[in-house]
Design a protein that fits this description.
about 30% helix, alpha+beta, 13 strands, 9 helices, Aminopeptidase, globular
Length: about 300
């Protein structure tokens, strides 16, 4: 289909706020399968975990006959995440044109799932080359039948009680993800309250492991898509001072038990797949998750740079 006909068929509009996140989530929910890259909870977490980053983001939605069929989320200077209904493959080229209009860096990077072969073909035809070096993420999955018990070994397990826990929840998150050699986490009490207000967050799926003095030292947040009976873990972590004690695994199992009680049948999580950071992957595998897919990044240099 020609570029003009594509533009006539689809309506593109910019992201304008939380109501449009729900539109993006509606597409992710409609397209969900065990091999899907995007879950409604991952979108909520990604959008709200940090405050003040919106100027770095350009996001657009495409609709056909009033129904969302694609969204694209560009972050500075030149990285793109997207979701496209496979029934509308002709829109892929239009999304890449939009990306070129809003990106500013010397290279363009687009990340897709290895199963999205039609998108991969479009990327290759437009000069993108698979990145074979550097970090990458894999998807791991398990069904929730026969869940093992959560055993925190001398620590206490509880789910978050409400926004009063936002400050403590943010502190343990920063401790877990502010590591030597990496940028410090920007999750704050304010941003965590924004996460807690986002659909489909539920306090009963947000679990903490506490030390004897009541200090949170590990956590797991699960997001549930009730329609698809699918849960996703995002995020999971442990304070470095309390690692190698099985606490993240205990938080994961406690949250998965809660998700199963609410109707979940399967769960998925993303983790680094390269050998530079194997610990998270090993934690998930220890509680029954197995690899099912991989994210793949494609890169294109911009002419003139």
């Amino acid at each position: 289909m020609s570029a003009g006909r594509v533009r006539d068929r689809y309506r593109r509009r910019p992201y304008e706020g939380a109501a449009d996140l729900r539109v993006m989530q509606s597409l992710s929910r409609r397209l969900w399968s065990p091999a899907s890259r995007w879950h409604i909870g991952e979108l909520a977490w990604s959008r709200f975990q940090h405050i003040g980053r919106e100027p770095e983001w350009r996001t657009a939605l495409w609709e056909c006959d009033g129904e969302p069929v694609a969204w694209a989320w560009a972050t500075s200077p030149g990285d793109l995440e997207l979701q496209l209904d496979p029934a509308h493959p002709d829109l892929a080229v239009e999304i890449l044109r939009w990306f070129d209009e809003v990106a500013t860096g010397e290279t363009r990077t687009v990340t897709v799932l290895d199963a999205e072969t039609a998108l991969i073909d479009v990327l290759r035809r437009h000069g993108y080359v698979e990145a074979t070096e550097g970090p990458f993420f894999i998807h791991l999955r398990r069904d929730l039948a026969g869940l093992e018990p959560a055993t925190p070994g001398g620590y206490t397990l509880r789910h978050v009680s409400g926004t009063a826990d936002a400050d403590a929840r943010a502190r343990v998150h920063r401790a877990a993800f502010s590591l030597p050699g990496l940028p410090p986490s920007k999750v704050s009490a304010e941003s965590y309250r924004a996460v807690m207000r986002a659909w489909p967050y539920r306090t009963e799926l947000d679990w903490l492991v506490e030390a004897a003095d009541g200090t949170p030292v590990a956590f797991c947040l699960v997001w549930l898509d009730e329609r698809n009976r699918a849960a996703v873990l995002e995020p999971v972590g442990t304070d470095p001072a309390h690692r190698r004690r099985g606490l993240a695994g205990a938080a994961i199992l406690a949250s998965l038990h809660a998700a199963r009680e609410l109707g979940a049948e399967t769960a998925r999580v993303r983790a680094r797949g390269d050998d530079a950071h194997p610990a998270a992957r090993a934690t998930y595998q220890a509680v029954g998750f197995r690899r099912c897919a991989r994210d793949v990044s494609f890169v294109r240099a911009v002419a003139g740079h």
